[in-house]
Amino acid sequence: MNELERESALRVAGVQNRLGEAQIRCCELQRYLDEYRNMFAQRAKAGMEVSGMRDYQTFIARLGEAVQAQQAVVEQLSAECQREREVWFQAAARKSAVGKVIATAQSEDRTAEDRRVQREVDERAQRQRGAL
User: Is-above-0.90 flag for pTM?
Assistant: First the structure.
């Protein structure tokens, strides 16, 4: 793995970690929202004061906004993760292409060297036959 490919892989890993943490946070916020909605429904059935209802509704609305904001963070990190993966794959493809070019050049060099050596051997054999 070359340096560019290694750096790309590390960036992908970093973004994936941040994405995982953001997803966990989003699930936690969603769970809190669901819990508070259930508590509100139970307390509303049991009867509660108007000010308490307003406080619950305000808090639930803010928690809903926090869930939406966290979902946006998850979507952004997911897109960033995809972009970083593409960069990583491109780096790997470039490395592979360069490796193939180098292997082809080395193979052509070996073939040319083998032909040169064979030509020298053939010329030496002809000279020896001519000397006899």
Answer: no
